[in-house]
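Not sure how to ask, but would you mind making up any protein sequence you like and the tokens describing how it folds?
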Amino acid sequence: MKTYIISELGINHQGDINIAKKLIDMAVFAGCDAVKFQKRTIDDVYTKEELEKPRESVFGATNGDLKRGLEFGLEEYKEIDKYCKERGIEWFASPWDLKSVDFLEQFDMPYWKVASALLTNDELLKRLKGKVILSTGMSTIKQIDHAISLLDDPIVLHCTSTYPSKLEELNLDVIPWLKERCGCRIGYSGHGTGIVEPVIAVVKGATMVEVHITLDRAMWGSDQSASLEPAGLNKMVRDIRNVPIVLGDGIKKVYDSELPIMKKLRK
């Protein structure tokens, strides 16, 4: 099975549709299968107190100014939908609340994505109809089992919810264990800065990989440091596509290309 590779734009588009398009172009050029966004109804997801907290940004002086400035609305998503169709790449999003589910239902998305933070939100999980991708960061196996029981054959992504994640906390050997235990497709959602971790995840059995992407890690934003820049994304996709070629068929053989070397060197 070909690995399905997702480029997570998250908030790295900075609320700018032109940056979002550049990130989509970046994913297309690298050979990714999809780009992913996040959708929030700000006043439902965050409390009034949280939104009123002081937080300086290019959008204003409060946390609410920042959250609202980063959020795309209907016109932007129509433009995203149109642009992705023109560029030949799929897109979908993580809804963070029920109104966002209603909003996203007007688009023909191939998947719903459940963020790790929402794995325990039963009301949201029960609302999702169709193919669901479930991230499992900061979740116990009991919580994961319960979430899976509410969904119809989800794709489960192993994940560590730190930005960026420490190598010693990635624990990629969980992937084959989850595959055997859960009996469903298993993938990997990475928040690292390297390209080797997603490749190892594929070797371990992940059939879907999600990574955050950025035009430049020096850009403003809290997720930039846990994202891959264009060169890194290109190399990661290349290496993931080469995994089945490198693994081969598992049958030991002597290749025709080895025969001249054998004739020359073997005594």
The longest strand covers residues 34-39. The chain has a mean pLDDT of 96. The chain has one domain: 4-265.
